[in-house]
Amino acid sequence: MRQLVLRNVLVATDFTDESAGAVQAAAALAGLAGARLHVVHAARPGERDVEARLREHVARLSPEAGEAATMAPPGAPEEVILQAAERTRADVIVLGPHRRRGGGALGSTADRVVRGAEVPCLIVPRALELPLRRVVAAIDLSD
Questions:
Q1: Which of 6, 48, 60, 62 has a CA-to-CA distance to 140 between 20 and 30 Å?
Q2: Which of 58, 60, 33, 7 is nearest to 132 (CA)?
Q3: What is the rounded distance in angstroms from the CA atom of residue 75 to the CA atom of residue 134?
């Protein structure tokens, strides 16, 4: 089994409270690993000053995060996130589970990202308490 080395941590945010924990968790992981933090937001038509808002958002939620790389291309959120993961060579994608419709565990964007990502995804409903004390990993015994 190969060891996961974090050089680039990508977090997706939509500026809601539901994604705040993901931003805080990603900033903490990046800090612990000495990795670069990348923050992405799928911009909507007419949305202005998004990258400045992203920088302010990260600074407010995780002041210790330092300078994060930000990007806000337009498009469908899952496509923007997956393209950003590829572009930044993300080692992990962090996002919140929000917008649970129909009682499912994940919203549609999180579900599509998890299914389409080529790197591990960490879905966090709130900020992580670090250091982690217990970790559960589901496996299916396949290669």
A1: 6
A2: 33
A3: 37
**Contact present, 94 and 119 (Cβ < 8 Å):** no
- Beta-bridge partners for 71: 40
Amino acid sitting at position 111: D
The predicted structure's pLDDT at residue 2: 66
User: How distant is the alpha carbon of residue 39 from its chain centre?
Assistant: 7
Rounded to an integer, what distance in angstroms lies between the CA atom of residue 21 and that of residue 11? 10
Rg (CA), the chain: 15
CA triplet 40, 17, 101: central angle to 5 degrees? Answer: 90
pLDDT classification of 11: cutoffs 50, 70, 90: very high
For residue 43, what is the DSSP state? B
pLDDT tens-place string over residues 51-78 = 899 999 999 998 887 889 999 999 999 9
| pLDDT score of 115 more than 90 | yes
Q: Cα 104 to chain center, whole Å?
A: 19
* pLDDT confidence of residue 27: 93
Chain-centroid distance of CA 66 in Å reads: 16
